[in-house]
Structures are given as C-alpha cells and as structure tokens.
C-alpha cells in the first residue's frame, strides 16, 4: 500500500509525545539545522502549556511524521492560525503537508471562522506552492512573510455551496501558483483572486487585502462586486462607492443591499430591487481618521454591505486607510540633548492632497523646547513630502507631545486646516517622564526606558546609551489554558506615576477569556537602570477563580550567558549565542540570569520566589501560580527585575538579587573535565570528558594528547550524547598538561587542560627554630614568624621565585619594613604594626571539597596591639600536594572583636624575583593592545592583571602562573627598579564572633608561557571556607 494511503490524521495525546520528540529530532534540516534536542518530557510539558485549540498529527504505522497546530491568531481578529507545521524529511513529497493543512481548514470552517493565517520565511520555497494550492495568499510586506487563507469564508457562503458540494475545491482550483508575493495592485488596493473551474461551471472570488473581505464574486449565473475610488481616503470628504450586480440567467434575481461598514465610515445604505440583467447603485461615504493609524498587522476599517441574492447573503468588504489632509512628524538627528542646549528639529511633512498646497505650521508652546519661530511655512507638491529644519533650545528633558495646527491653501485659493500630533522624547540624566506616539507608550528615567507597543503590549526595556538591543518582554498570558487574547488588545488605560525614587508606567488590560479579570502591570524605572515589573490581578466579575496562572514571557539574547546551577555558574565563553531551547531550565538553582555583550552592555534578569523561571517554547518565561482569586479581590505579584547595565559582573547582580550568599565557581559551557576530579594519584585511570552544559548533542571527533600519547574518539549525532569520554591512565606525578582538538561538521575547537597527579612521596613539614619549611618533593616553601608574617621563599627544583631579604626585614623602595615574599595584608595595618603582633606557625592538613588532602602550614596572627583590629585573628594558609608543583594560598579571618566589620579590604601581596637579576624578570599579560610582556627592575609600571598572570625570567623554561580568585575585587601589578609586586584585593565582612574567608589563589609552576583561558583551579575550595 502506498504511504499516502497509510497516513492517518489524529489529534495529539500524551501517548504520542515520544513520537513527536523523535520527529522533531529528525527534522532539524527543515529548520536551518538547529541542534535542539527534544525529549518526550519536553513535548508533554510544551503541549500542556500550549495555546493550541487543536494539534493534528500525521501518523504512518504508529510513527509520527507530521505536525500541525491550530490556534487563535494573536495579531488580528477574525482568524485562526497555524503556529507550526512540519513534515518529517523522510516523508516529504507524499502530500502529508496537504492533508494536515486541509484538516486545519476543515476545522476552521467547522468553528465558523472566516480566515486561517500562518507565517513562514521567504526562503521556504518548498512549502510556498503547497500553501498557495491550499488557498493561502502571500502578503507583500517588508516586515513579515505572512500568508492568509480565505477558503474558510468561501466555503461558508451559502450561495456557493451548490458548486462546492459537487466539486472538490482543491482539485478544481485554477489559480496560478508562483513563488512570490501575491496580489493585483490597483488604486492602492491589493486584490487576491480565487478561481475554480469544473467543466462549464466556474466560481471566481476576489478578496481585498487590508479589509480581509470579499470585493467580487462571480459564478455562471451572476456577478456581484463593489468599487471604492481609492484605498487612501481623506476624512470628511464625500466618496462614491459603487455596488454592482449582473444577472447572466433568464430569470430575475431578488437583490437587497444593506450597509455594513466600520464605525469610522458614515454611510446610509438600504435598497431592494429585482435585477433582470444588470444593476448598480452608488453610495456616498465619508470616513473618519481613527485614533491609531491602521496597522498592516490588523484588519483596516472597511466599507461594505451585505447583499442578498434570492435570500442568500453575500458579504462585501473593502479595507480603506482614512487620512487627514496631511501629516507632520518631528525628528532629530542629534542623539543626546541636555537642558539649555541648542539644536535643530526637523518637521517632516506629507501631503495627502492631489494638488500643490502651501502650509503654515504653528509651533506649539509647551515646557520642553523653545522654538526659534512661532510658525513655519512650506510649499508641498501634491501627495509630496518636505522637511523643514527648525532651530530650538531644549528647556528640560521630557516628552514633546503636542497637537499641531496646520492652516493651508490650494493654488486656486481654497483654504483648509487640520490638527495633527507630534511626539518626540528628549531623555537625559535625571529626566523622569512619560508620553506616547501613534504606536507606543514610553516611560523614561534618565537614559533608561520602557517602551510598550500599543497593538500587542510587547514591552522593550533598554537604555538610549546602550549598544545592545533592548530586552523584550512578550505579551503576558492568563491561564490555564493560556490565552493569547492580550496580544491583540490595546491597554484600556495607561498612567504615568512619578515617584521620588523612580518613574512608573501602569497599564491595564481587561480579559475576555477570564471575564471580570483586569491585569494591571507596573513598570518601575529607577535612575540606575533597574526596572521592576509588578503584576496586579483584580477580579471585578462575579465568578471566583481557582488555579489561575499568569505567564510573563521574555526574549533575551543569551550573549556570554551566566546561568546558575547547583555546583557553579555556567558561563558562555564562546561566540555561540544559545537559543532558549538549549538551556537546561530544570537545573537552574537560583532565580536569575545574566548576559553581557562584547561592548560591555549587560542585562540582569531576576524573578521573585513565588514565580518559576522556565522555558516557554523559544522564549523564557516567569510563571505565577495564583491559586484562588475570589470575586472582588486582588492579587499582587512581583517584582520581576531587569537590570540594564546595573552591574558589570554576574556575581554583583546575584548578590544584589539574593543578598549575601556563598560564592559559586564558573563553569564554561564547553570544556574538558575529569569525571573523577581534578586531583588524582599516579596509576589512576581518569575519564576526561569533553562536555557541553547545553542540551544539544555533541558529535564529532575528539583527540587528546598527553605525554606523547594520543587518544582519539569519534561520536555520531545519532549516539545522542552531550559528553565524549576518553579514559587516560596518568603514570607520572606532577602537573600533567593535556591538549587536544574537537572537530565536527560545523565547529572546530582547540583546548588545553591539566591534571594534578599526586606522587607517592609524602609532603614533609619541618621546623628549624622559627623557620618552617614545606617540601612536597618538587618544590619547597618557607616561613619565619620572627622575620615577617608570610611565606618568604618558594623554590622549585632549587630555583627561587619569591623576592625577600631574609633573615632581616628592612626598608626597600616605598616600604619599611619590607619582608617581600607572599602574604595577606589587612587594610589599615602597616608592616610595622603587623610585626608588633605575635604570629604562630603550625603544620596543617586541609581537605578540599573533592576529598583530597592538602598539606602545608598556617600562619596565625592575633591582633592585640592594633586599635582597629584588636581581637581579630588572621590565618594565612599555604598548602600543596605530593610531587605537584602547585601551592594554594588562602586566608581566614576569625572576628573576635566586639564590633562589626563591613566591606573591609584584604590584599594578597606577592613579591616576585624568579632570577637573581630583577631586570631579567617579566610578567606576561595578554591584552588587546600591542604590548604583552613587561620587565621589572627597569622603570616604574602600574599594570592591570587579568584573571591570571605568567611570571618568568629570560633563559628559563619554567614559569610561575598566579591564578587569582574569581571573588577578587581587583588585581594589579607594580614594577620599579627595586620590586616586582603582584597584588589581588578582596573584600570581607564579619560580625563579632563570626568568621570570613578569602578563596584560594594558586601558584602553578611549569612550562606554560601564556595564561590559561580555561582551567579547573577555580573549582578547588577547602572545607570550612
């Protein structure tokens, strides 16, 4: 049996979820080759939250091979909509798409809707012929590839049923099919025409694009049509509209005609007659200009009538664009304005009249700008444009939102006048104001703004000074099931509220899907870029609502995304901008997101505890469960927080949203990680895994090089994995470097990572008088409490890396006393004061969070003399592993003083000298500039350090890399003829009898010549900190 005969169209049920997921995963090439991985659970969740009225599936032998949703169209009234149509690539060309579309059309007819719409993309040339054959017309627009199908209306016309009861409309259609936008253009109108032929019988129906209505119907027996003189009609002017009926039969036709136009059209039409051959009537109409200019997204005002022929109704409708005699817009090419600044505004004028005219435009008096002249005069060609520069002075930051009076005269001396609105915002620091244009409402506080589209309540949040596009909040939805009703509703009211600390825009939307419910949204804009969104639901109806939900979708661009998970923050370090479908939303451990673009513009997003952050198809969304909303009651929820350049780092945004929290390490989206941990022992097998923290599968060839050994593994897409594992046995102790490549059809990657392999030799801690030495077999470090409270020596295979003057501290450069070496410095505590206090050294062993034991020393200094720090104990730890050239340094502060310390600074100082000659010692710091290496001992430099810095000396292979803690406030270097200092500054706070800690800094010795971009050191932390 042919496949097409085995296809059945069924309604979606949960039992088909796995089949739907399989179909999507095998249909990527239909959608640009995206890497989204869909599971049965994803399908169940998505369809449970869907706004579809129906979901039709094409099934062949229990395999799902086609998908077609049917919902109410959210952009316009009077239409249903196909949000998604797909046919499995292995089953294309078998007319499965046709069966799904015809099912959707039949269902639309059954519901009594007149139209079915869908969107596609211009390059979808395979599907366009199918769409057109099924009755869709491709609308000629620049902003969207929108198709409209009027077959549901045609099939509901009683007078045409005799033809369609006898003949299949699909097979008898003789409409030409071309892969381009449709329509015959005439007098500003665009007409779409269907035609069906069956033997000697035919039917012809013509639709007008903007009114979405019929302008002509013709059969073998009769023809009816209407004729409007022009698409664009001037207000308050009489226009003749002609209705015509032709009778092709020998019997008379009983015809009646009654006007049925939009409320903006003034027309008195009501006639009855008997038509023997041909009859026409002319109706005089006037139009009024609507408050909002007609949008290409919505049905325009219509002129029309209901004609009945022998008792059968035929609705005729033609859309029009009501106009004033002219229009004036105000614009500026100047980006930033400040009060008392002079500049130029441009009045752009457009005439809608046929003849040349002269206009006098009166410049309105108001508080925002001062015009250099009270009026301007301009000559405008018929249906022409002109622009007039006008000098102004800005009086205050605000919204110029005024009616302009225009007086005009034609060449023959006829006078006319009209009023039109001009609107232009002048944002600036400290300016708090709101206003509206024809299409949007705005609220500003300084450079930060909220923009609300009138037609669909989509909200943009941004800054006029940002190089990034604004963040988009999509139309809110009420459910369950969720309704798209607000996407085609304009707010019933908008209020602007100025507060001392912020500016608020309040909108109100009235629900029809949930009668009596009013949704008030408050957009609170602070002057520092924070925007808070509160939602208030009021039940003004008589029904009590239970299990009501509010969904607020948002559409961020996930550039350099920071995403919190339980064991760290996923960081987008790649150029890849993930899609929402790529996120593991169920792994979110905290209620925030953060994005950064290459220009440094940031968006922080956060939601309240009572909301759930989750995926909503291709959007992200915040869902509020509202439980009960009795009649006469209200519920307030929020705030959702949007930070526009509020913080420069995700950790600051996290702290702002959550308060004081433990720090989290960063995890790159893609990396090679050891499954058994970053620290192992000689002879252990370690599984090194190239993994993605996004949902798409990883497939390609992974190659890893280690100690002259090469390991290669290939994975195919159908293997369905997000990690590629390579087991490696590390035989030698020390710092093992692994390099490798990943190659796939679409991406190439090079990477480097390392493994700390412990040897069999134990770490030895010895004491000789007050000198404590730690020896791990490959390096030693030494401290002496009587010399200076810190590590003064760090040697690797006999080579010193630190600069000191043991056994006696003394003056050097700007310091006195100077002990050099490596130590933590409390802010406000001089070296003299530090040496007055007693420092005790002891041997310690500390366990990291992976269970590895690090051995070293702790230097504890309790302050007894220093007035500010009296009662505080500073503990400095220096730890290492057997035969591993790595030292971990961190600090703990035990706060025994009867006071509170807040936002105190503590700095880690490292004085370095990896060669006897200081001028041979250098720091390597990659930047975007031309210099990358700086030598000490030559001249004075202050340098900014990156996340890590490589220290070396001429002629030596081994380098020391200092890896700063991610929680540092800043990291810098200082060089002069006497010293080479690397410093990282940290912040701590603690109340009395509490403790604080500084996360570890690592000193790594090896042959690395450049700082590492990726490494696992930041994931090492020690228990108790």
UniProtKB/TrEMBL annotation:
Family annotation (PROSITE patterns): GNAT
Record carries keyword Acyltransferase: yes
Keywords associated with the record: Acyltransferase, Transferase
CDD domains named in the record: NAT_SF (cd04301)
Matches recorded under SUPFAM superfamilies: Acyl-CoA N-acyltransferases (Nat)
InterPro entries found in the cross-reference section: Acyl_CoA_acyltransferase, Bact_Acetyltransf, GNAT_dom
MF annotations from Gene Ontology: acyltransferase activity, transferring groups other than amino-acyl groups
Domain N-acetyltransferase: 7-156
This protein's name: GNAT family N-acetyltransferase
Record organism: Halobacillus trueperi
Organism taxonomic ancestry: Bacteria, Bacillati, Bacillota, Bacilli, Bacillales
């Amino acid at each position: 049996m042919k496949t097409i005969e085995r296809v059945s169209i069924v309604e979606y049920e949960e039992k088909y979820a796995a089949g739907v997921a399989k179909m999507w995963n095998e249909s990527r090439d239909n959608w640009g080759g995206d890497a989204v991985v869909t599971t049965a659970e994803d399908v169940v969740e998505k369809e449970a939250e869907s706004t579809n009225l129906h979901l039709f599936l094409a099934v062949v032998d229990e395999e799902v091979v086609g998908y077609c949703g049917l919902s109410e169209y959210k952009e316009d009234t009077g239409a249903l909509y196909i949000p998604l149509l797909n046919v499995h690539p292995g089953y294309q060309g078998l007319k499965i798409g046709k069966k799904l579309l015809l099912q959707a059309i039949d269902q639309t007819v059954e519901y009594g809707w007149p139209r079915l719409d869908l969107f596609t993309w211009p390059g979808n040339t395979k599907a366009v012929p199918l769409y057109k054959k099924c009755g869709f017309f491709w609308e000629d627009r620049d902003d969207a590839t929108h198709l409209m199908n009027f077959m549901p209306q045609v099939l509901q016309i009683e007078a045409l049923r005799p033809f369609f009861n006898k003949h299949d409309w699909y097979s008898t259609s003789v409409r030409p099919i071309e892969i381009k936008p449709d329509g015959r253009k005439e007098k500003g109108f665009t007409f779409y025409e269907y035609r069906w032929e069956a033997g000697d019988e035919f039917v012809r129906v013509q639709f007008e694009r903007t009114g979405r209505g019929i302008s002509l119907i013709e059969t073998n027996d009769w023809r009816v049509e209407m004729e409007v003189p022009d698409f664009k009609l001037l207000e308050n002017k009489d226009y003749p509209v002609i209705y015509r009926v032709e009778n092709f039969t020998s019997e008379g036709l009983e015809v009646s005609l009654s006007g049925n136009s939009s409320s903006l059209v003034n027309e008195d039409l009501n006639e009855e007659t008997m038509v023997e051959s041909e009859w026409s009537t002319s109706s005089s109409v006037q139009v009024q200009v609507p408050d909002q200019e007609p949008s290409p997204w919505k049905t325009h005002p219509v002129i029309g009538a209901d004609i009945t022929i022998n008792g059968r109704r035929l609705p005729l409708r033609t859309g029009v664009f009501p106009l004033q005699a002219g229009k004036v817009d105000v614009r500026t090419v100047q980006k930033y304005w400040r009060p008392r600044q002079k500049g130029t505004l441009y009045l752009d004028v457009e005439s809608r009249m046929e003849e040349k005219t002269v206009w006098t435009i009166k410049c309105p008096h108001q508080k925002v700008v001062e015009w250099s002249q009270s009026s301007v005069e301009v000559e405008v060609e018929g249906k022409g444009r002109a622009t007039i520069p006008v000098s102004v002075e800005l009086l205050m930051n605000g919204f110029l939102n005024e009616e302009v009076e225009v007086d005009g005269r034609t060449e023959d001396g006829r006078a006319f006048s009209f009023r039109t609105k001009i609107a232009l915002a002048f944002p600036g620091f400290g300016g708090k104001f709101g206003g509206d244009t024809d299409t949007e409402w705005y609220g500003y506080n300084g450079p930060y703004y909220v923009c609300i589209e009138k037609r669909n309540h989509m909200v943009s949040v941004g800054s006029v000074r940002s190089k990034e596009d604004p963040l988009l909040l999509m139309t809110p939805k009420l459910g369950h099931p969720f309704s798209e009703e607000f996407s085609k509703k304009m707010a019933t009211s908008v209020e602007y509220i100025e507060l001392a600390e912020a500016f608020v825009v309040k909108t109100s939307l009235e629900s029809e899907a949930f009668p009596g419910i009013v949704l008030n949204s408050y957009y609170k804009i602070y002057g520092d870029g924070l925007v808070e969104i509160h939602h208030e639901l009021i039940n003004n109806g008589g029904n009590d609502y239970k299990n009501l939900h509010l969904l607020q979708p948002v559409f961020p661009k996930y550039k350099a995304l920071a995403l919190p998970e339980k064991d760290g923050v996923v960081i987008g370090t790649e150029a890849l901008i993930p899609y929402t479908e790529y996120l593991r939303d169920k792994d979110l451990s905290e209620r925030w997101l953060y994005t950064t673009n290459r220009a440094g513009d940031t968006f922080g997003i956060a939601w309240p505890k009572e909301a759930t952050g989750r995926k909503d198809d291709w959007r992200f969304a915040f869902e509020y469960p509202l439980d009960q909303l009795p009649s006469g009651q209200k519920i307030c929820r929020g705030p959702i927080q949007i930070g526009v350049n509020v913080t420069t780092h995700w950790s600051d945004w996290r702290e702002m949203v959550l308060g004081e929290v433990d720090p989290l390490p960063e995890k790159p989206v893609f990396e090679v990680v050891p499954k058994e941990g970053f620290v192992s022992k000689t002879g252990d097998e370690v599984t090194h895994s190239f993994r993605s923290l996004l949902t798409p599968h990883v497939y390609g060839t992974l190659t890893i090089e280690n100690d002259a050994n090469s390991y290669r593994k290939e994975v195919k897409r159908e293997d369905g994995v997000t990690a590629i594992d390579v087991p490696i046995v590390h035989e030698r102790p020390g710092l093992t470097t692994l390099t490798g490549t990943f190659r796939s059809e679409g991406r190439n990657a090079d990477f480097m990572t390392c493994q700390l392999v412990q040897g069999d030799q134990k770490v030895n801690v010895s004491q000789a008088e007050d000198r404590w030495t730690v020896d791990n077999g490959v390096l030693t470090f030494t401290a002496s409490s009587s010399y200076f409270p810190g590590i003064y020596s760090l040697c690797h295979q006999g080579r010193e890396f630190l600069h000191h003057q043991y056994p006696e501290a003394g003056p050097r450069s700007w310091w006195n006393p100077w002990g050099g070496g490596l130590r933590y410095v409390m802010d406000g505590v001089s070296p003299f004061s530090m040496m007055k206090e007693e420092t005790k050294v002891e041997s310690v062993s500390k366990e990291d969070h992976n269970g590895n034991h690090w051995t070293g020393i702790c230097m504890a200094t309790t302050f007894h003399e220093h007035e500010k720090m009296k009662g505080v104990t500073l503990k400095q730890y220096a730890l290492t592993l057997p035969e591993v050239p790595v030292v971990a340094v961190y600090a703990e502060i035990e706060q025994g003083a009867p006071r509170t310390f807040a936002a105190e600074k503590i700095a880690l100082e490292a004085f370095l000298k990896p060669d006897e000659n200081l001028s041979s010692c250098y720091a390597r710091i990659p930047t975007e500039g031309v210099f990358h290496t700086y030598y000490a001992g030559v001249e004075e430099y202050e340098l900014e350090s990156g996340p890590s810095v490589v220290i070396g000396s001429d002629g030596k292979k081994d380098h020391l890399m200092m890896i700063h803690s991610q929680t540092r406030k800043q990291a810098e270097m200082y060089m002069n003829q006497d010293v080479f200092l690397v410093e990282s500054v940290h912040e701590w706070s603690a109340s009395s009898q509490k403790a604080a800690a500084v996360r570890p800094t690592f000193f790594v010795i090896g042959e690395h010549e450049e700082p590492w971009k990726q490494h696992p050191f930041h994931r090492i932390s020690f228990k108790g900190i």
